[in-house]
Amino acid sequence: MKAIVFIAHGSKKEKSNNEFLALVDELSKKDKEYDLKKAAFLELATPDIKSVVTEFIIKGAKDITFFPYFLNSGKHVISDIPTIVEDLKKEHLDIKFRLLPHFGQSKKIQDIILNDINKPFI
Questions:
Q1: Tens digit of pLDDT for each residue in 46-85?
Q2: Which phi and psi (to 5°) does residue 34 adopt?
Q3: In the chain, where the domains are located
Q4: What is the pLDDT of residues 28-40, one digit of tens each?
Q5: Going by C-beta distance under 8 Å and a sequence separation of 6 or more, which residues neighbour residue 8?
Q6: 122 pLDDT tier (thresholds 50, 70, 90)
Q7: What is the pLDDT of residue 23?
Q8: In b/e form, how buried is each residue of 52-89, taking b as 16+ CB within 10 angstroms?
Q9: Helices and strands counted in the chain (H then E)
Q10: Residue in 74, 84, 2, 73 with CA at minimum distance from that of residue 41
Q11: From CA 74, how far away is CA 72, in angstroms rounded?
């Protein structure tokens, strides 16, 4: 069973966390690749990454992918998230873990920005 964890930083502001949860909910409805999909937060909000992974393993996931929803490659992307994934690999030797590049690496971001800034004003 394949699963994906969408990871955001987390915020003290509930509205910010809810925006991410809503995005993941919409993505989950459209995605056909993964059996299990859920949002997780690195800090300041719940659920955390390890809790989501534990839930997925209990449900039978054997292949878990992580998508860091981060724009830039700061400390969390370069160090914190990879460390968490490596720790999970050591704890769960029978599970395949895969860390995708962070959102900011997508080549499609430029197209989105150009589309948004070149719309005619009403």
A1: 999 999 999 999 999 999 999 999 999 999 999 999 999 9
A2: -110, 145
A3: 2-117
A4: 999 999 999 999 9
A5: 17, 20, 39, 40, 41, 42, 69, 70
A6: low
A7: 98
A8: bbebbbeeebeebbbbbbbeeeeebbeebbeebbeebe
A9: 5, 4
A10: 84
A11: 6
Who's near 10: CB < 8 A, 6+ residues apart? 17, 41, 42, 43, 44, 45
Could you tell me the CA-to-CA distances from 86 to 27, 30, 77, 102 in Å, in that order? 26, 29, 13, 16
In single-letter form, the type of residue at position 73 comes to S
**And the tokens for 94?**
């029978």
Count of C-beta atoms within a 10 Å radius of residue 99: 19
Tokens for 17? 């966390």
Residues 24/37, Cβ–Cβ less than 8 Å: yes
Q: Could you count the other beta carbons within 10 Å of the beta carbon of residue 97?
A: 16
Residue range 2-117, CATH number: 3.40.50.1400
